[in-house]
Amino acid sequence: MAAAQDVHVRICNQEIVKFDLEVKALIQDIRDCSGPLSALTELNAKVKEKFQQLRHRIQELEQSAKEQDRESDKQALLQEVENHKKQMLSNQTSWRKANLTCKIAIDNLEKAELLQGGDLLRQRKTAKENLAQTSSTITENLMGISRVMSQQVQQSEEAMQTLVTSSRTILDANEEFKSMSGTIQLGRKLITKYNRRELTDKLLIFLALALFLATVLYIVKKRLFPFL
């Protein structure tokens, strides 16, 4: 049980130191803040949150001190609690002073801006004119780029159309070549067939002529040499 209490006390002290440092850092941010009021309000909200966490941890440490078995440990922890409370009060005082300093600085800045209102208006007007000129230049540049891109797209479309036309011409030529190839093949077959038929006709003529000659010879033989 005592070991668990020691761990809890150690955690409480670590958290108290952590929140104390965070509060001090936020108070310094408030001192350095030059506005606007919304930024100051946001910083104050963070400080309030850290003070609540710090106060809660100090109360836990105080409760742990009251639960100590030995009187010496109890008094030592209560003294630490008292020191933490004093430190928290000191931080609260610094917080109020920092808020006062920040508000005075914001008021002075607003007064200076009012006094320099004319110059600021002129500067803003000049800045707006410069911005408008810059926007106009950028717009013209973008329009020029758009025109160049449009021309490139048109050229690409024309090139694509040319490629399509060329491809179509090549396909038509290929079809014509196939048709001519078929015609040539057919002519070759016809010529081959004709050559074969011519050879056959020559052979038939030769046979017919041989038969005719044989017949003539036979007739001549019978008439000239009937006894044979």
TrEMBL record:
Quote the protein name from its UniProt record: Sec20 C-terminal domain-containing protein
Transmembrane regions = 203-220
Q: Which UniProt keywords apply?
A: Coiled coil, Endoplasmic reticulum, ER-Golgi transport, Membrane, Transmembrane, Transmembrane helix, Transport
Q: Which residues form a coiled coil?
A: 37-71
Q: How does it sit in the membrane?
A: Single-pass type IV membrane protein
Question: Which family would the database say this protein is a member of?
Answer: Belongs to the SEC20 family.
Task: Provide the protein's localization.
Answer: Endoplasmic reticulum membrane
Domain Sec20 C-terminal as annotated: residue spans: 134-224
Checking CDD domains in the record gives:
SNARE_SEC20
Q: What is the lineage of its organism?
A: Eukaryota, Metazoa, Chordata, Craniata, Vertebrata
Q: Which domain of life is it from?
A: Eukaryota
